Amino acid sequence: MKLLYEKPKAEDYVSLRLRSGMGNKDLERSRKAITNSLFTVSIYDNEKLIGFGRIVGDGGITYVVSDIMVDENYRRKGFADKIMKEINKYFEESTFEDSYICLIANSPADSLYNKYKFEYLPPNRCGMLRKQNRIK
Fold first, then answer.
1. Which class does domain 2-114 fall in?
2. What DSSP character marks residue 98?
3. How is the chain split into domains, by residue range?
4. 58, 99, 118, 119 — which has fewest CB within 10 A?
5. DSSP per position, 21-73
6. pLDDT tens digits for 77-123?
7. For the whole model, what pTM was predicted?
8. pLDDT in tens, 18-33
């Protein structure tokens, strides 16, 4: 196993999305997304991408944790935790006290994120997603 901070190939990213249950994404849009990521963590078993996570944002104020995923055949071995440790290290070294750092978690992954200073929003705040119409 090797952990790298290099951006994976879009083909490997899409393949891992499918193997992790995250769903398919367009290859060209995936290529653009990976290229524009601020920080990436990739875990490989030989040449096979088996774990991945990234940070997107503006690099100054707003940061979003995205795409924390592990191949279904490699789960429950601490790989998601390793990815989050590296992401947390990036935040500790590269962000500021007033930085806005967020993520949207699927249950039960929220328990992992709690270990890295992520908390549920207080009652006077709410998370929202924009409803997207299909773009052709």
1. alpha beta
2. T
3. 2-114
4. 119
5. TS----HHHHHHHHHT-SEEEEEEETTEEEEEEEEEE-SSSEEEEEEEEE-GG
6. 999 999 999 999 999 999 999 999 999 988 888 889 999 999 999 99
7. 0.90
8. 999 999 999 999 999 9
